[in-house]
Design brief:
eight-stranded mixed beta sheet, 241 residues, two-stranded antiparallel sheet, Spore Coat Polysaccharide Biosynthesis Protein SpsA, Chain A, 7 helices
């Protein structure tokens, strides 16, 4: 199984910080942001990493070259930054029909359990498994997506950036997929506000088709870095843990 790390976006909300450097190469406690995802992939036992690049792509290529901790890296070029679903579509050929773990290069997870997540995905023979975190401050869910599920964790509904989250389950970009998820891209509606297909809507298309999608509590603390204050908070947390 492969890992697909998305690192192609501009990170406009970081302003001048991402003009001078690729967003995923900004430092958190002295290390590039994307390196935390690379470490997660290594520790979970994945042995092939595909990185989708776009904006200031050469910085990532120069930093990591052809391998990370002896794990081969392949790069996929996204010519236009049109969101996560488009990024997965760009990776179709490189994924070559294999199931994969999606990671976002601007996410930080503290003491994540990717190895346990992978075992659960394989044991349950799921179509997809969404890594989630249970939050005390439900307003944080507005930054990612909301998850509605039954008692055994089977997901019935995902909502991108909900205005009023109704539970405390926050979705992350760390998700395991059967390769067939790619077949649902064309069935995914284009979000009228952003003009692109959204990741939760892609997964929802599979759920509506009776595919089994569950959630997995991946970690206790999670930060999706979009703002300078989030980058600072992440650095402080890593320094003090």
């Amino acid at each position: 199984m492969k890992v697909l790390i998305l690192a192609g976006g501009r990170g406009k909300r970081l302003g001048n910080m991402s003009e001078a450097a690729n967003k995923c190469m900004l430092k958190v406690a002295g290390r590039p942001l994307i390196e935390y995802s690379l470490e997660c992939a290594y520790r979970a036992g994945f042995r092939e990493i595909d990185i989708l690049v776009g904006y200031r792509a050469q910085e990532i290529k120069d930093a990591y070259g052809k391998a990370f901790r002896s794990i081969p890296i392949r790069y996929i070029q996204q010519e236009e930054q049109r969101g996560v679903v488009h990024a997965i579509e760009c990776a179709r050929e490189v994924l070559d029909g294999e199931d994969f773990m999606l990671m976002l290069g601007d996410e930080l997870l503290f003491k994540p359990k990717h190895d346990e997540m992978l075992k659960f995905f394989l044991k349950e023979e799921l179509f997809s498994l969404c890594g989630v975190v249970v939050v005390e401050e439900v307003s944080l869910i507005k930054k990612t997506y909301a998850v509605f599920q039954n008692a055994d964790g089977r997901i019935s509904r995902l909502i991108e950036k909900p205005d009023q989250p109704s539970n405390n389950i926050m979705g992350t970009g760390n998700i395991l997929f059967k390769n067939e998820i790619i077949n649902y891209i064309k069935k995914t509606p284009i979000n009228p506000k952003r003009g692109e297909r959204e990741l939760p809507d892609l997964i929802q298309a599979a759920i509506d088709d009776k595919r089994i999608v569950k959630s997995f509590k991946l970690c206790d603390k999670y930060i999706n870095v979009n703002l300078a204050c989030e980058l600072k908070a992440a650095s402080s947390y890593f320094v003090h843990t």
